[in-house]
Amino acid sequence: MLFECVPNLSEGRDRGRIQALANAAGSNGAALLDVSSDRDHHRTVLSLAGSASALTGAVLNLYGVACSCIDLRRHHGAHPRIGAVDVVPFVPLAGATMADARALAEAVAEAVAERFALPVLLYGDAARDVSRRRLASFRRGGLRGLASRLERPNGGPDYGPARLHPTAGASAIGARPLLVAFNVVLDSDDLVLAKRIAARVRESGGGLPGVLALGFGLPERTRVQVSMNLLDPVRTPPRMVFDRVSAEAARAGVRVQDSEIVGLVPAAALAPGDADVLRLKPYGVLEQRLAAAGIA
């Protein structure tokens, strides 16, 4: 069985730390397919692939490095987070089912909690309660909000202590299908506009199916961004989302500067010529990276 694993780490600026984290992730026989870092978000997204045993060892090694070098008390970035290793989703690929990914997520979550004394919350298809499927349920109110909820009878972690780790916070581990993390940068520094467009584009606001969206400021670029997860990137591909964001921005007299895919994109989500239309920064295709790693 083959799985993808996409750890999201609360470090996007220190090259030495990022390299150490990437080295840990690419250990134990796991294939490191991609490293995407963002200074404004202060976040790095790693894309790994391998068997359940390979990924288990690699992820545990990654937590060991992250917990030793990332201190959330000194962390400031645009992206919301709950932990040094913020989110770790497992995605079933060849020969694996969602049930397999869920079992892997549970096993890794239990091991992480025991080894690192971290509170671990299961999310996505691994969630034990429908109210915990979305990451937003953990991030509400930031670390203070999560710390308060962990102490409640119905708010405790699935594994580990009912209190935040002093420097590494907590962690969300889950299972999910393939998604595309897609960001559109506006030629503007108007954060109110970015948030308004995000509200109109996301599914919960009556926008596009399977789209989660937030507006962020990018101080180092003096621009703003509509940051999205496309939960069904074949039904609602990046091109459709880009056109919608562009149209909403045009209403305010603002143009789109460019777009980016964080991590990897399945080939079926992009049509020929899309990269030019989307003004897309260099990106990686999942199937191509798997083939290059010899595990397609």
Report what the structure shows.
- With 296 residues, the chain is α+β, with helices and mostly antiparallel strands.
- The protein folds into two domains: 3-175, 2-Layer Sandwich (Formiminotransferase-cyclodeaminase, Chain B, domain 1); 180-283, Formiminotransferase, C-terminal subdomain (Alpha-Beta Plaits, 2-Layer Sandwich), CATH 3.30.70.
- The chain is 33% helix and 25% strand.
- It is built from nine helices and 13 strands.
- The chain has helices spanning 15-25, 52-69, 98-116, 136-139, 142-150, 191-201, 238-251, 274-277, 286-292; strands spanning 3-5, 8-9, 31-38, 43-50, 85-92, 120-124, 171-175, 180-186, 211-218, 223-230, 256-262, 264-265, 284-285.
- Strands 1, 2, 3, 4, 5, 6 and 7 form a seven-stranded mixed sheet that branches. A four-stranded antiparallel sheet has the order 9-10-8-11.
- Helix 1 runs antiparallel to helix 2 (52-69), helix 2 (52-69) packs parallel to helix 3 and helix 6 packs across helix 7 (238-251).
- The model has no long low-confidence stretch (mean pLDDT 96).
In short:
The protein has 296 residues and is of the alpha+beta class. The protein has helices at residues 15-25, 52-69, 98-116, 136-139, 142-150, 191-201, 238-251, 274-277, 286-292; strands at 3-5, 8-9, 31-38, 43-50, 85-92, 120-124, 171-175, 180-186, 211-218, 223-230, 256-262, 264-265, 284-285. 33% of the residues lie in helices and 25% in strands.
